[in-house]
Write a sequence for this structure.
């Protein structure tokens, strides 16, 4: 299956600091790609380049979608107007379809309804955002992105600030979107969820150091090299991978580990 | 569920919001109509509602030669003053709402980008140039003298110049565009205020006229000044209203707004142009009137109009009503003298704003 969105040998820098170097990444329909790596590895920059928010200094981005609404982006801690109702926020997702001056059509309203339903916030439709919990707000932000009816969903740390229950809930929503054919790229710090993705891409110092199935990428040696911390990769009773820090591991410097700057 | 059924369900579910938006617009319109009626009939010389209506009828039909007695006062003095208050209040209310939306900051106001500082500097230059003003000015802050026409012209040039300088300074900033604009606006405004103060002290004879102007006053409003200000105000307001949905999208952050198809730099420029045009038109003719542009949008947002397609017109209506009532107070509270309306809006608006903030918590 050909990729819907891909970067080809992309390099990017902020001033003199190179943050991405020769990165090639393809996203196909229906797969969840987890972008993992230490802070400052270039994950957010790569996501913004995929979203068209940054133009790479070198290399190119190939977009095989027809409409500008086909790529939806959810920023890290998306800003939400707290005095708005849920529905008002989700309706903004229709802007790529209706533009700045046309009113929402029946078709647009139906898409908003469906996004509210799929994220489970339809019963909160008329609630003001300030009255919602962090988990509910994140679902509203996702509903806004889904109202675009995107073919690609780019998410920057969607699990941040969510408790484990809401993290699981959000991940199952992403799984359901992928089942509907949406290609998903999500920056993930929780390697447990990265292990449940279809593909895992490990970034380090602006380069991709591993790209493949979670089992191929999330190996203890690769993770220790990338994150500079000792870990153990375990299998849960249902056969899924899980990654835990391992302070007792021989040779590991768990607290006060030294890094060279 | 079929599409039609889904639509029906969404319409039913959506009714409270649309009804609330309609109620906000109708309520603000009714308040404005009430303010206009009270203000037009009340003053140093009370004019009956009948005479006021008669004056309006004859004026609108172009039969001004038939005006008699109180109708003349109503048509030539009261109406232009009320019309100017409506125009200026609407400009300040809508510009305040747009600036708060643009900067996503509830403390943003129409004068943020140096408009007030620039207008005051321009007006002070005009006062200095018009040698026949100054200490001769009596109870009214500035009179229609030989050079009085230069004040609005210089004030609007000063306002436009200040915004252009702010934009140029912000371009060199390393911080985000919005932060750079805010900082540049504060700096340009402060420098212009210090330059204005220097000019005022250098020519102390004109001090009273300049201070009165800078405090805001609608006393010298005439049909001519209304006709001069109206085109700029209308174009500015129309530009702002056209940006409403873009401002809505901006509430999700600049990056997200861009990904849903909003041309953020063009939107920012459009809002700044619209707000500056409307605000400059307002301050050029009546001076700097504080708090209307800050309080009106807050009130409208609180009573249920957070989206800009409702918030902008509602803030325009609310700002207009506020200023009409404030002007009524300014010319009746210490009768027969007058308070500068800017003093009253700040005196009442400040504590009211604090009360509003306490209620928001």
């Amino acid at each position: 299956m050909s990729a819907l969105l891909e970067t080809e040998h992309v390099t990017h820098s902020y001033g003199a600091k190179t943050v991405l170097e020769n990165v090639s990444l393809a996203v196909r329909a229906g797969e969840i790609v987890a972008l993992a790596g230490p802070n400052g590895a270039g994950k957010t920059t790569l996501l913004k380049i995929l979203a068209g928010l940054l133009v790479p200094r070198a290399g190119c981005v190939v977009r095989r979608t027809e409409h500008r609404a086909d790529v939806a982006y959810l920023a890290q801690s998306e800003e939400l107007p707290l005095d708005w109702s849920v529905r008002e926020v989700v309706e903004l997702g229709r802007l790529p379809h209706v533009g700045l001056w046309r009113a929402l059509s029946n078709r647009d309203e139906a898409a908003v309804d469906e996004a509210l339903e799929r994220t489970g916030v339809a019963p909160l439709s008329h609630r003001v955002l300030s009255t919602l919990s962090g988990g509910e707000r994140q679902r509203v932000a996702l509903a806004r992105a889904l109202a675009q009816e995107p073919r690609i969903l780019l998410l920057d740390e969607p699990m941040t600030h969510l408790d484990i229950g809401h993290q699981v809930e959000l991940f199952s929503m992403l799984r359901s979107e992928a089942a509907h054919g949406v290609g998903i790229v999500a920056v993930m710090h929780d390697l447990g969820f990265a292990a449940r993705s279809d593909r895992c891409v490990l970034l380090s110092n602006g380069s991709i150091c591993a790209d493949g199935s979670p089992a191929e990428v999330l190996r203890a040696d690769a993770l220790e090299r990338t994150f500079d911390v000792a870990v153990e990769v375990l299998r849960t009773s249902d056969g899924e991978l899980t990654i835990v820090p391992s302070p007792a591991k021989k040779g590991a410097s768990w607290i006060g580990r030294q890094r060279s700057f | 569920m079929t599409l039609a059924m889904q639509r029906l369900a969404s319409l039913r579910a959506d009714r409270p919001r649309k009804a609330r938006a309609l109620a906000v617009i109708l309520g603000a319109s009714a308040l404005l109509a009430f303010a206009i009626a009270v203000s037009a009939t009340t003053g140093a010389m009370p004019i009956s509602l009948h005479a006021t209506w008669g004056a309006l009828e004859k004026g609108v039909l172009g039969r001004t030669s038939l005006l008699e007695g109180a109708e003349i006062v109503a048509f030539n003095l009261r109406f232009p003053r009320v019309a100017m208050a409506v125009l200026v209040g609407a400009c300040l209310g809508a510009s305040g709402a747009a600036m708060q939306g643009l900067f996503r900051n509830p403390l943003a106001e129409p004068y943020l980008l140096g408009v007030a500082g620039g207008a005051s500097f321009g007006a002070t230059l005009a006062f200095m140039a018009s040698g026949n003003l100054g200490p001769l000015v009596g109870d009214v802050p500035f009179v229609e003298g030989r050079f009085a026409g230069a004040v609005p012209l210089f004030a609007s040039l000063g306002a436009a110049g200040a915004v252009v300088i702010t934009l140029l300074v912000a371009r060199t900033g390393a911080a985000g565009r919005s932060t750079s604009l805010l900082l540049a606006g504060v700096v340009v405004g402060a420098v212009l205020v210090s330059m204005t103060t220097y000019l005022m002290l250098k020519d102390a004879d004109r001090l009273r006229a300049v201070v009165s102007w800078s405090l805001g006053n609608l006393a010298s409003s005439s049909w001519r000044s209304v006709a001069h200000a109206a085109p700029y105000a209308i174009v500015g307001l129309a530009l702002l209203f056209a940006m409403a949905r873009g401002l809505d999208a901006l509430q999700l952050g600049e990056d997200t707004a861009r990904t849903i198809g909003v041309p953020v730099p063009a939107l920012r420029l459009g809002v700044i142009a619209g707000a500056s045009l409307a605000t400059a038109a307002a301050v050029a003719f009546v001076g700097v009137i504080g708090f209307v542009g800050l309080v009106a949008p807050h009130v409208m947002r609180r009573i249920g109009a957070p989206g800009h397609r409702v918030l902008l017109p509602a803030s325009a209506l609310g700002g207009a009503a506020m200023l009409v009532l404030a002007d009524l107070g300014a010319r009746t509270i210490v009768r027969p003298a007058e308070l500068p309306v800017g003093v009253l809006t700040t005196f009442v608006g400040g504590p009211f704003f604090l009360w509003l903030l306490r209620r928001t918590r």
